[in-house]
Amino acid sequence: MTSAQVDKHDDRPAGNEAAGTAHSAGEGSGEGYQRGLGARQIQMIAIGGAIGTGLFLGAGKAISKAGPSLILAYAIAGLVIFFIMRALGELLMYRPVSGSFSEYAREFIGPFWGFVTGWTYWLFWVVTGITEVTAAAQYMSFWTHGSIPQWAYALIFTLILYAVNLISVKLFGELEFWFSMVKVTAIVGMILICAGILTVGFSDAADTATVANLWNDGGFFPKGIGGTLMTLQIVMFAFLAVELVGVTAGESKDPEKTLPKAINTVPWRIAVFYIGALIMILSVVPWHEFQPGVSPFVAAFQKMGLGVGAGIVNFVVLTAALSSCNSGMYSTGRMLRDLALNGQGPKVFTKLTKSGTPLVGTTVSAALMLVGVWINYVAPGKAFDYVVSFATISGMWAWIMILVCQIRYRRQSDAGALPKSSFRAPGAPYTSWFALLFIFMVIVMMGIDKDSRVSLYCAPLWALILGVSYLVLKAKNPENKAFAKRS
Asked: What's a Pfam family in this record (predicted)?
């Protein structure tokens, strides 16, 4: 079925008069994009956004630091993520736009904050794309044993995903649907196998498998409350990209129905795919047997004596990496185009293909991802790790902006200055303030942890670059409404 073409944006910088239009869901919100993402695809993009290498690989390190109490950390962080997503949902139903976070920051906080948010979220996905496509190439060596160079796989994956994102948004959505399906199937399969071991008692792990493993070996908090708190940055990193559903708003066929439904499934997704999976795995395999850098899924399969497990998990992790890179290709082009449409980026980024995909923005982002692969090839040391560490703090910046914008929007809508959203966040603004405080606590934990502290060193440098760039653009275009705060 051919996607319906929506009205094109007028390509003017967003001024006060622009802010007063398109507040109703769907009105003028497509900005030239095609609404090619259906309910099935939006649902799986939302599910896939919450499942990535942070769970399949990062959970091993977190288990070694916190033990079974990691389950509680995921539960609390999951509640915060739900508050963030409901805040985003309220904004999306007020005005569903592809620019999403940067557009709301521009309207409710000011043009500078929209500029910072758009470029920071773009950088987040470029950096994430670099790491994920490189990781995908490394995973391929599991089968090829180095017979094909790593850079060759990285090049092939990048070009394939680039082509997919240029052909049509519908093809992107379909690919993401199947990527997410693989991840979901793997987790559900693991849960069912573990449940079978606990109840029926098959496999090599049956003799020691018991729910009591959650508290027998040093208690539920074997490393103390402090150990649990120090895993929060790992936990929050695992949830990065859950907000991607907001970027799809301008290309959803029926955003009034599909987006709220996708957001409302966040609690059960977290309950099943994170909390449920961890409870099962930690019941079958005692927590102290997990090691940093080793997937808890691989460790569990090995404990069960299932020899095919390593190959299965490697395929799933490969899929998770490609899914993340695919999402990066999608979101970077949209963010650059939103910035350009608002006069805060080069106008060349506004160009769309005939199928309604951002040609130049996606191409530039894909090219930078290839440069990152090259850097990783020639200098895979600490410098590359420092760049990767920036992904967490830049990703959480989008969450902070979502919450601040929702708080300001709620204040204005309650006062009658703006129309009320059809999908109001329950408990807001108190839930939004709670989520903000939680995020800031995680940032403090990152500062304490020597392994993640470097990301906080990178943030001021990036802020300085953006600040200088904004001032230069504003000085060159003093009459541009993109640099005037909306009323």
From this structure: AA_permease
Q: What is the DSSP string of 72-96?
A: HHHHHHHHHHHHHHHHHHHHHHH--
Residue 311 within a domain = yes
> Is residue 17 included in any domain, yes or no?
no
The pLDDT tens digits for 413-450 are 999 999 999 999 999 999 999 999 999 999 988 888 77
163 to 172, 175, 266, 325: CA distances (angstroms): 10, 12, 30, 13
Residue pair 72/219 in contact by the 8 Å Cβ criterion? no
| Nearest residue to 35 (alpha-carbon basis) of 484, 444, 267, 356 | 356
pTM of the model: 0.84
Q: Residue 136's domain spans which residues?
A: 32-381+391-443
**Distances from the Cα of 281 to the Cα of 250, 301, 366, angstroms:** 39, 10, 37
List the structure tokens of 243.
């907000």
pLDDT in tens, 154-195: 888 889 988 888 887 777 778 888 888 888 888 888 889 888
User: pLDDT band for position 116 (50/70/90)?
Assistant: very high
**Nearest by Cα to 451 from 234, 224, 287:** 234
User: Could you tell me the CATH number of the domain that includes residue 343?
Assistant: 1.20.1740.10
Please tell me the predicted confidence (pLDDT) of residue 251.
66
For residue 249, give the amino acid letter.
Answer: A
User: With 0-12 CB in 10 A as exposed, 13-18 as middle and 19+ as buried, what is 365?
Assistant: buried
Q: For residues 36 and 168, give the distance between their C-alpha atoms in angstroms, rounded to a whole number.
A: 8
Sign of CA dihedral 265, 266, 268, 274: positive
Count: domains in the chain: 1
Chain Cα centroid distance, residue 447: 22
Higher pLDDT, 400 or 237: 400
Phi-psi region of 13 (alpha: psi -120 to 50; beta: other; left: phi over 0): beta
Round to whole Å and give the CA distance between 232 and 485.
Answer: 36
Name 352's bridge partners.
358
Residue type for position 34:
Q
Q: Does residue 22 belong to any structural domain of this protein?
A: no
Rg over alpha carbons for the chain, rounded to the nearest Å, is: 22
Residue 343 vs residues 21, 101, 359: alpha-carbon distances, Å: 18, 16, 18
In a domain, 480, yes or no: no
Residue-level pLDDT at 402: 95
Q: How many residues does the chain have?
A: 487
